[in-house]
Amino acid sequence: MWRKVLRRKIQPTDYVFVSLSNNSKSKQLSRRSIRAIIDSYLSVTNLKHIPGRTLSAHSLRHTAGTLALRTGSDLRQVQDLLGHADPRTTSIYAHVGDCPKGLTSCREASRPKGYRFA
Questions:
Q1: Rounded to whole angstroms, how far apart are CA atoms 108 and 50?
Q2: pTM above 0.70?
């Protein structure tokens, strides 16, 4: 069965994370399942609870958004990556302490050309 799946052309509607359980085989993993898998790996590697910080699937998502902005992605690209509807939601990933010198805010640094924040 899996050979047939792997030999066909991948479609944009195909799932990235697929369940292998008996109840929902070959269906999309839920957000809750992905969170549980990440939490279990963080616990096994003793990274879940570090003194002064607790890592989670959400904190890793936040890190991915922040790193994308730091490495030059514009706000719209990160917005698409994270699935946010509003650019103001994505702008929280641009931390004030991480702003390049000479700019009044990180929102200025990360906004698309011609975009005006409300």
A1: 33
A2: no
